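Technical note accompanying the year-one report. For the benefit of new consortium partners, we illustrate the data format agreed upon in the data management plan: each record pairs a sequence with a structure-token string. No post-processing was applied to the example shown here.
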Amino acid sequence: MIHRLPFWVFAGSVLLALNAGFINSVALLSFVNNAVSHVTGTATIAAEALTRYDWQLLWHTGAIILSFIAGAMISGLVIGNEALKLGRRYGVALLIESALLLFAWYGFTHNTFHAEWLASAACGLQNAMVATYSGSVIRTTHLTGIVSDIGSALGNLLAGRGFARPQFILQTAIFFAFIGGAAAGAVGFRSYGYDAVLFNGIWVMLVALAYMTLLFRAAGREH
């Protein structure tokens, strides 16, 4: 349970949730209309395609799921331990995610299916990267667990079992950040088309640079 939340954890989670909402919105509005920030709905579509022997749809949706897994694998290779801790190689992971999103932007602008695979890999990497802090699960690419935790916290409060305020504030902020990012993605797609994805890549790159700057300053204070 979170008792005291460092600013870098809060800010990073919110900024990445904004990014995930944005890219997922653009992907849903794209030429193939599939989600990329989570795999539940995509797995359902794949299963339905299997029952109709629609091998093309099954191949594409299956590739989106495998890409999400591949992104999570990259996170495991780069970062390793799931517990959030200042000093781990989140900057490197974020730069890889930024590159994946920039390649996805190129794919979207050329109407190629691999664009969604790259975007899904970026989200898988991000979701695995932001995993746990102080015993609490933190996810930034989908809202199912976040909404469940918010509801559970409110239920415990009503039952008089206590209330983890910092954890509730973080989860609520992630929820609204994802929604805000999705709204921004819809507006960006209507205004700029697939060029809106370019914003995603740059956004994540800036978050990576901000984290690296934070590490540099923390190292300077230690010396």
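Partners are asked to follow this layout when depositing records. Residues 110 and 194 are 9 Å apart (CA to CA).
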